[in-house]
Design goal:
Layout (H helix, E strand, L loop, with lengths): L9 E10 L2 E5 L4 E5 L12 E8 L5 E4 L11 E9 L3 E5 L6 E4 L16 E8 L5 E5 L2 H7 L11 E10 L2 E6 L4 E5 L12 E9 L5 E4 L4 H18 L3 E2 L7 H8 L3 H13 L3 E4 L2 E4 L3
Parallel strand pairs: 3-5, 13-15
Antiparallel strand pairs: 1-2, 1-4, 2-3, 4-5, 6-7, 6-9, 7-8, 9-10, 11-12, 11-14, 12-13, 14-15, 16-18, 17-18
Organism: Neobacillus driksii
InterPro entries: CvfB_fam, CvfB_S1_2nd, CvfB_S1_3rd, CvfB_S1_st, CvfB_WH, NA-bd_OB-fold, S1_domain, WH-like_DNA-bd_sf
Family: Belongs to the CvfB family.
């Protein structure tokens, strides 16, 4: 088997000779360059070296003593370090050359592409030209590393990364190891692939997977909505032409809230003595 056919894998080679810019390693039939920037220390001729094989930016088979966590058939969480809207996003695997997760493997809508700092669970694949690419984990792969939630986990706060996106919802792998689903009704905006999100478990299914909500708990949500209304009042010098009898469509257009949510938030502000209503207007209470 040629060294080219071992791209994306770890092999043990022998130092054939030193060069000013690195070392030429051999398997007895072929040589490959271990550039000095990819070597973890100095090596002597005839010394054995464990290296990871990849294709450099010039299209040459190259070696690195940095052994990535990810390999052919082996998955790992990798950090997004860059993106190009024409080709895809780039992942850090530890070596000098970043790994491409190509446009064909990413969501159709670029608004949910991973951004720098996001984490994706991938393996390596090699194309017909022996170039390395990332391949996203599928549901069965996530299933294989997940653990089953129990009824005791219901209502728990969780964190995790999005591993799959769709219009109907998003799929999450939590820090605990749960595999979960976030229905579109349980998120204000669609999270990105690879984005770390926080939510809570709203259902534990019979198979041990969970349903997750990214929406704030009712009290937290009410607090946020009340502050939004209060800030709007402040921006209008303490008066606004809205009250608890305003038309639902007017409330939705101005505050992006349902009438029920608006009334609860406004009621909270009134109970706290921060605002009062007069006619069809609401006013800030002066001290």
């Amino acid at each position: 088997m040629s060294l080219q056919e071992l791209i994306g894998q770890t092999v043990t080679l022998t130092v054939a000779r030193k060069a000013e810019f690195g070392y030429f390693l051999t398997d007895g039939n072929e040589d490959v360059l271990l550039h000095i920037n990819e070597a973890d220390r100095e090596y002597e001729e005839d010394e054995s070296v464990e290296v990871f094989l990849y294709v450099d930016s010039e299209g040459r088979t190259s070696a690195s003593t940095t052994i990535p966590e990810v390999a052919i058939g082996k998955y790992a969480w990798l950090k997004v370090v860059d993106s190009n809207p024409n080709v895809g996003v780039f992942l850090d695997i530890g070596i000098k050359k970043d790994l491409l997760l190509g446009i064909d493997d990413l969501p159709v809508h670029k608004s949910v592409w991973p951004k720098e700092g996001d984490m994706v669970y991938v393996t390596l694949r090699v194309n017909n030209n022996y170039l390395l690419y990332a391949k996203l984990a599928t549901d069965p792969v996530i299933e294989s590393i997940s653990i089953k939630a129990t009824r005791k986990d219901f209502n728990k706060n969780i964190q995790g990364h999005i591993y799959r996106t769709a219009k109907v919802g998003s799929w999450i792998y939590t820090i605990e190891g749960f595999k979960g689903f976030i229905h579109e009704s349980q998120r204000q905006i669609e999270p990105r692939l690879g984005q770390k999100v926080e939510g809570r478990i709203i259902d534990v299914k019979e198979d041990g997977t969970v349903n997750v909500s990214l929406l704030a708990r009712k009290q937290e949500s009410q607090d946020v909505e009340a502050e939004r209304i209060f800030e709007y009042l402040m921006s209008r010098n303490g008066a606004m032409p809205f009250n608890d009898k305003s038309m639902p469509e007017d409330i939705q257009e101005r505050f992006q809230l349902s009438k029920g949510a608006f009334k609860r938030a406004l009621g909270k502000l009134m109970k706290e003595g921060r605002v009062y209503q007069e006619g069809s207007w609401t006013y800030l209470k002066k001290d």
